[in-house]
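User: Teach me something about this protein's shape.
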Amino acid sequence: MVLLDNSNFILRLEKIANAAKKDSSFTLTFKRYDGNDKPVPREGRPPLPKPETYMCLMRAQSKSQKISTVVRQEDVPAMMGMYSQFMKSKMDGLKRVKKVKSKAKATKG
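Assistant: First, the predicted structure itself:
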């Protein structure tokens, strides 16, 4: 997994989305991140230190590519602005789902 800065993450995410538009899909996940890369210690060992502020870990994954970035608390508004612009530009291929009425409802109404 490649850890990128926020602006490069959005640029690479656009490339992944363009590649996935043809024949596949991609996933994007958000997770609260406290900066610890170590697992939780066993009983009897000192616990990991609590962070002063939490961060957000964003991960994107397609078939063969995995990228991630860590968004600090002060960078959240700027990153969400870039992310919303990305979503608005790439969500043009969605199709409207038609509601299917069941036969029972169709005969009553």
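Now, about its shape. The chain has a mean pLDDT of 87. The longest helix spans residues 6-23. If you'd like, I can walk through any region in more detail.
User: That's plenty for now, thanks!
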